[in-house]
Amino acid sequence: MERLINIHIEKLPEGVYLATSDELQGLVAQGRTVAETLEIARDVARKLIEAQSLNQESDYFHPIAEQFNYPLVVSQ
């Protein structure tokens, strides 16, 4: 089942990107590009959700709606 988790991405002074989430405690991912950071964040999120399900924590993530906004990053 797909779930929607909001993450915050910021560019650090060192030139790398950092992703965190207020919705999924413990989600921290860092990459050289936004795409790499998103890929790492997705893997970390999967592992955190799996660990939480093993601990019988409640499922509080929202299922993906039929429509939603997604910021598309395009490089030139």
Radius of gyration: 14 Å
Major sheet summary line: 3 strands, antiparallel
| H-E string | EEEEHE
CATH architectural type: 2-Layer Sandwich
Helix content: 25-40%
Strand order of the largest sheet: 2-3-4
* Whole-number count of domains: 1
What is the CATH first-level class name?
Answer: Alpha Beta
What separation lies between the terminal Cα atoms? 34 Å
Low-confidence sequence ranges: none
Which secondary structure elements does this structure contain, and how are they paired or packed?
Elements lengths: L2 E2 L3 E4 L5 E4 L7 E4 L2 H21 L7 E2 L13
Protein name: DUF1902 domain-containing protein
Organism: Anabaena subtropica FACHB-260
In short:
Helix content is 28%, strand content 21%. It is α+β, with helices and mostly antiparallel strands.
What do these coordinates show?
The chain is an alpha+beta fold and 76 residues long. The protein has a single domain, classed as Double Stranded RNA Binding Domain (2-Layer Sandwich). Helix content is 28%, strand content 21%. It has one helix at residues 34-54, and strands at residues 3-4, 8-11, 17-20, 28-31, 62-63. The strands form two sheets. The chain has a three-stranded antiparallel β-sheet with strand order 2-3-4, covered by helices on one side. The longest helix has 21 residues, at 34-54. It is globular and about 40 Å long. It starts with a strand and ends in a 13-residue tail after the last strand. The mean pLDDT is 86. This is DUF1902 domain-containing protein.
